[in-house]
């Protein structure tokens, strides 16, 4: 059953889904077949506002399709046996090439294994200009959301975006034990040598080898000072 009633929590749920998935299915309009749908699997990240980011080679078929028609959609879904019954979101919009160095750093912090490849000049970073989202929360729970329901706006500050690389470096180099604590005791993920790979107004992203975790803040933060206070508070939470 389709439901167009807006629930403010739905945007937060979709943002968390987008923030915690590394791979998504990209649908473009195929040039070679006269505009037929063409789906491919790509690596994804997102900006602090949760707008999807992806980096593509100019040599790829989906890149040729985007050059002709920027209309695309991205399917975000869990890679589980019962994925069809889990929440999933199709983000609809346009792929816009982007040269923002901070967004590129966000993408590469999420996907360190591709850093060597993207040094080649044929790779382009795209930021998705979101228009709407089709969100399936479960059986009988289907929602159509506007971009304004999904993307953060005034909560994202230029200061926090600019400070993010420094915060990540500081925490990973000077406080690795606290990063491990976030993953082990606050998220419930075992193992050592966790790294903080991102911080945004709603939480932090963590990674270890092929594992990833997300720690949500209790409230939205909007500047580096509040981020520092929240990180200190989380490190002092009783185990």
Structure notes:
The protein has 7 helices and 12 strands. Strands 1, 2, 3, 4, 5, 6, 7, 8 and 9 form a 9-stranded mixed beta sheet that branches. It has 2 domains: 149 residues, Roll (Pnp Oxidase, Chain A), CATH 2.30.110; 72 residues, PNP-oxidase-like (Split barrel-like), CATH 3.20.180.10. It is globular, with a radius of gyration of 18 Å. 32% of the residues lie in helices and 34% in strands. It is α+β, with helices and mostly antiparallel strands and 239 residues long.
Radius of gyration: 18 Å
CATH topology of the largest domain: the name is: Pnp Oxidase, Chain A
What is the total tally of β strands? 12
Instruction: Please state the structural category.
Output: alpha+beta
Strand content: 25-35%
Feature tags:
239 residues, alpha+beta, Pnp Oxidase, Chain A, Split barrel-like, 2 domains, nine-stranded mixed beta sheet, globular, disordered N terminus
């Amino acid at each position: 059953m389709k439901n167009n009633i807006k629930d403010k929590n739905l945007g937060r749920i979709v943002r968390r889904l987008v923030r915690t998935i590394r791979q998504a299915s990209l649908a473009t309009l195929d040039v070679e077949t006269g505009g037929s749908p063409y789906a491919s699997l790509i690596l994804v990240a997102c900006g602090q506002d949760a707008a999807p980011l992806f980096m593509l080679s100019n040599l790829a078929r989906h890149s040729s399709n985007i050059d002709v028609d920027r209309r695309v959609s991205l399917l975000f879904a869990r890679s589980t046996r019962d994925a069809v019954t889990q929440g999933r979101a199709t983000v609809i919009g346009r792929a816009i090439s982007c040269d923002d160095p901070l967004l590129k750093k966000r993408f590469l912090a999420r996907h360190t294994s591709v850093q060597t490849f993207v040094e080649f000049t044929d790779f382009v970073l795209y930021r998705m200009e979101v228009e709407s989202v089709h969100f399936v929360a479960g059986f009988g729970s289907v929602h159509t959301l506007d971009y304004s329901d999904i993307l953060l706006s005034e909560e994202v500050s230029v200061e926090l975006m600019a400070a993010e690389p420094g915060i990540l470096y500081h925490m990973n180099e000077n406080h690795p034990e606290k990063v491990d604590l976030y993953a082990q005791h606050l998220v419930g993920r075992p193992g050592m040598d966790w790294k903080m790979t991102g911080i945004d107004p709603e939480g932090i992203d963590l990674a270890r080898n092929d594992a990833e975790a997300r720690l949500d803040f209790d409230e939205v933060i909007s500047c580096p000072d509040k981020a520092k206070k929240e990180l200190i508070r989380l490190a002092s939470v009783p185990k």
